[in-house]
Specification:
Distance between the termini: 79 Å
Number of strands: 20
CATH superfamily of the largest domain: GAF domain
CATH architecture of the largest domain: 2-Layer Sandwich
Strand order of the largest sheet: 3-2-1-7-6-5-4
Largest sheet: 7 strands, antiparallel
Shape: elongated
CATH class of the largest domain: Alpha Beta
Number of helices: 14
Length: 585
C-alpha cells in the first residue's frame, strides 16, 4: 500500500515549536522516558511532528514531516491504559509496520531483554483531545528508562506527573488553529469592506487585490477570475485552470515553493518552470493558491505571494485564506449578477427606445396622409352629395378622425414614456388646470347627456410638467364621459392628501358608467388594451388613454388605482406628491 505524504512543516511558527519542544523535554523528565514526540493536528486534516525530544536521528527524520490522519492501528492494536494506548510489537501486522516505516522512526537500540521488557517496536501513544472530545494531537513516549513496558501503576504515575502538560499542548495547538486564522480573516474582511459596492467583475477583482495586498502580511495578492489570462502563465493557463478546478472540488489549495509544489491530499511535484518564472518576476519565495467557488462551480483563485526571506505558509494561514476565499466568492457572484442585471437593463432600454422610436416614426409618417385625407374630405364636403354618398363621406370623416386621435395618442404615449426627453418641471396650479380641462370638455359632456360635478380645492400647487398633467386630467374626464350613458354622472374631486408620510394632492374621477369586468381591471393601463365586453367595444377608442395616464403619474412619482363594478361605474384615484422626491424637504 502507498500513502501520499503531504506538505511538511506547515504548522505554527518557530516560537510555538520551541515552546512545544520545551514541553516535550519536560514530559520526558517527569515520565522517565528518553524520547518524547508530539504530533499536532493541522487545519488540512494531517498530523505533523512539531516537537521531538531525546533522539536526534528521529528529530532529523521526522520533525516537520506530516502524515495522514490514520488512527485505526492505534484503536485496533493498542491496549487501553487510562487514556493511553500501548501497542506491543507482537501485535503489529505488516500493513501497520509499513505505515510506521514510512511515517515513524524505529530507534536503533536493542531490546531490554528484561521480563516484560520494552521492545524498540513498542508504542505508547496518547490521543490529545480538547474538552469537547475533538482531536488536537498525539503524544508519544518511547524508550522508558526502566526498560519495562508500562503497567497501570506506571501509567497512573505518568498522568499524575505530566497531566497538566497534556492540556498545555492542546491549548497551544488550538491557539495556532484559530488565533492566526482569526487575525488574518479579520484583517481581510476589514479590507474587503473598503471596496466600493456596485463594481463590475474586473474592477471588483482589481480593487480587492489592492485592498487585500495593503492589509495582509504578504508581498502580493491577486484575485483572478476563472478564464483570465495571467501574464507569464499564458502557456499553462488551461493546465492551471484544471488544477484549481480540481482543488475546488476537493476544497483544497496549492502551495508553490521554488523546488516543490504541494496540493492537498496529493504527492508534491517539481514546481513547473512557468510558476518558477512567475516567482522570479515578482521576487517571491513562495505562493499560496486557494480556489474560489460556489456550489459545484469554480469561480477563480485567490493567489498570495510571500517574499523569499519570509517564513513558509502555515496551516492557520491557509485555513484563513480559505475563509477569505469564501467571502470573495459571494462578492464575485454579486458582481456577476450586477453585470447581468445592468446588461439586461441596457437591453430592455434598447428595446424600449426602439419601440418608442418606432412609434414616433409611425405617428409622424401617418400625419401626412391623414392631413391629405382631411383636405380631400373637406373638398368633397363642399360638393352636394346624394344621401348614400354623404353617409360614406361621413364614415370616412369619422374613420380619419379616429386615425388622427390614435396618432396624437401614440405621440403622447411615446413622449411620456421617454425618461430622457428633457422636459422641465415647474410649479403647476393644479386647481386652475382642472377647471380649464373641465371647461374645455364641457361640450363633450353636454352632447353625451352626462352631468359633470367638480369639487376642487383652491391653490393646489405642485411641481410637475404642465402639458403632461393636463393630458392626464383630460384623459380621465374624456374616458369617464365615453363610458357613461346619457343621464349618468361624472365627478372629479381634487384635494390635499398625504401618502406614506408625504404631502400631495389626490385626484378622484368617478363615473356611473358601464364599469370594468373584475378580470380586466389589472389590464386597463396596458397600451392598446380594449375591453372584451360588447358594451365597451361600441365606444371608439385607441386603448392608449389610460396607459398615458399611468405613465404621467409614474413620471411624477405618484400612484394611480382603479376600482370598478360592472353596471355601476368606475373610480380612478391618482395621488401626486407636491414635489418630486429629490426636491422634498
Amino acid at each position: 500500500m502507498a500513502w501520499a505524504r503531504p506538505r511538511g512543516q506547515a504548522w505554527g511558527n518557530e516560537s510555538q515549536r520551541a515552546v512545544l519542544h520545551a514541553v516535550a523535554e519536560d514530559i520526558a523528565k517527569r515520565t522517565q522516558h528518553k524520547v518524547v514526540a508530539i504530533e499536532a493536528l493541522r487545519s488540512d486534516g494531517f498530523l505533523e511532528f512539531v516537537a521531538i525530544a531525546g533522539d536526534d536521528a528521529a528529530r532529523d527524520k521526522m520533525l516537520g514531516q506530516a502524515s495522514p490522519l490514520a488512527l485505526d492501528h492505534i484503536h485496533d492494536l493498542g491496549q487501553e491504559m487510562d487514556g493511553w494506548r500501548h501497542i506491543p510489537s507482537e501485535r503489529l501486522d505488516d500493513v501497520t509496520r509499513a505505515f510506521l516505516d514510512e511515517y515513524g522512526h524505529k530507534p536503533d537500540v536493542p531490546a531490554s531483554g528484561l521480563p516484560n521488557g520494552w521492545d524498540p517496536d513498542d508504542q505508547l501513544v496518547r490521543l490529545l483531545e480538547n474538552k469537547d472530545g475533538e482531536l488536537r494531537g498525539l503524544l508519544y513516549l518511547d524508550e522508558p528508562l526502566s526498560g519495562l513496558r508500562p503497567t497501570p501503576e506506571v501509567v497512573a504515575a505518568i498522568n499524575a506527573e505530566a497531566g497538566v502538560l497534556f492540556e498545555a499542548i492542546v491549548s497551544i495547538v488550538e491557539r495556532e488553529l484559530y488565533g492566526e486564522q482569526v487575525r488574518m480573516v479579520t484583517q481581510a474582511r476589514r479590507a474587503i469592506d473598503t471596496v466600493r459596492p456596485g463594481l463590475g467583475v474586473a474592477d471588483l477583482m482589481s480593487e480587492l487585490s489592492r485592498a487585500l495586498g495593503e492589509a495582509l502580511d504578504v508581498a502580493t495578492v491577486d484575485v483572478v477570475v476563472s478564464g483570465s489570462v495571467v501574464p507569464g502563465l499564458e502557456d499553462d493557463r488551461h493546465r492551471m485552470g484544471e488544477v484549481m478546478r480540481r482543488q475546488w472540488e476537493r476544497r483544497g489549495h496549492v502551495v508553490v515553493e521554488r523546488e516543490r509544489t504541494w496540493s492537498m491530499q496529493e504527492e508534491s511535484v517539481e514546481t513547473p518552470p512557468s510558476l518558477t518564472r512567475l516567482l522570479d518576476a515578482h521576487d517571491l519565495g513562495s505562493g499560496l493558491l486557494v480556489p474560489i467557488g460556489a456550489g459545484e462551480e469554480y469561480l477563480g483563485t485567490l493567489a498570495m505571494g510571500r517574499a523569499a526571506d519570509a517564513p513558509r505558509w502555515i496551516a492557520s494561514e491557509i485555513n484563513a485564506a480559505t475563509v477569505v476565499a469564501a467571502d470573495l466568492a459571494r462578492l464575485l457572484l454579486e458582481a456577476r449578477l450586477g453585470e447581468r442585471e445592468r446588461a439586461l437593463n441596457a437591453e430592455l432600454r434598447g428595446v424600449s427606445d426602439y419601440r418608442r422610436d418606432m412609434v414616433l416614426t409611425l405617428a409622424h409618417e401617418l400625419r401626412n396622409p391623414v392631413s391629405v385625407l382631411f383636405t380631400h374630405l373637406e373638398l368633397l364636403g363642399q360638393v352636394p352629395q346624394t344621401d348614400e354618398a354623404q353617409e360614406s363621406l361621413d364614415a370616412l370623416v369619422r374613420a380619419t378622425r379616429r386615425i388622427e386621435d390614435m396618432v396624437e395618442d401614440l405621440m403622447a404615449l411615446a413622449s411620456v414614456s421617454d425618461p430622457e426627453r428633457g422636459t422641465s418641471m415647474t410649479e403647476v396650479d393644479l386647481s386652475a388646470l382642472v377647471h380649464e380641462c373641465a371647461e374645455f370638455l364641457a361640450p363633450m359632456a353636454t352632447l353625451s347627456g352626462v352631468e359633470l360635478r367638480l369639487a376642487v380645492a383652491d391653490d393646489l400647487v405642485l411641481t410637475g410638467e404642465p402639458a403632461a398633467l393636463q393630458r392626464m386630467v383630460t384623459n380621465l374626464l374624456s374616458n369617464a364621459f365615453k363610458y357613461t350613458e346619457a343621464g349618468g354622472r361624472v365627478s372629479m374631486d381634487v384635494a390635499r392628501a398625504t401618502a406614506d408620510g408625504g404631502d400631495g394632492v389626490r385626484v378622484t374621477c368617478a363615473d356611473t358608467g358601464i364599469g370594468i369586468p373584475a378580470h380586466e381591471v389589472d389590464k386597463v393601463f396596458t397600451p392598446f388594451f380594449r375591453s372584451g365586453s360588447a358594451e365597451a367595444r361600441r365606444r371608439p377608442g385607441t386603448g392608449l388613454g389610460l396607459a398615458i395616464i399611468e405613465r404621467v403619474v409614474t413620471a411624477h412619482h405618484g400612484t394611480v388605482r382603479v376600482t370598478s363594478d360592472v353596471g355601476e361605474g368606475t373610480t380612478f384615484t391618482v395621488w401626486l406628491p407636491l414635489a418630486p422626491p429629490a426636491e422634498v424637504g
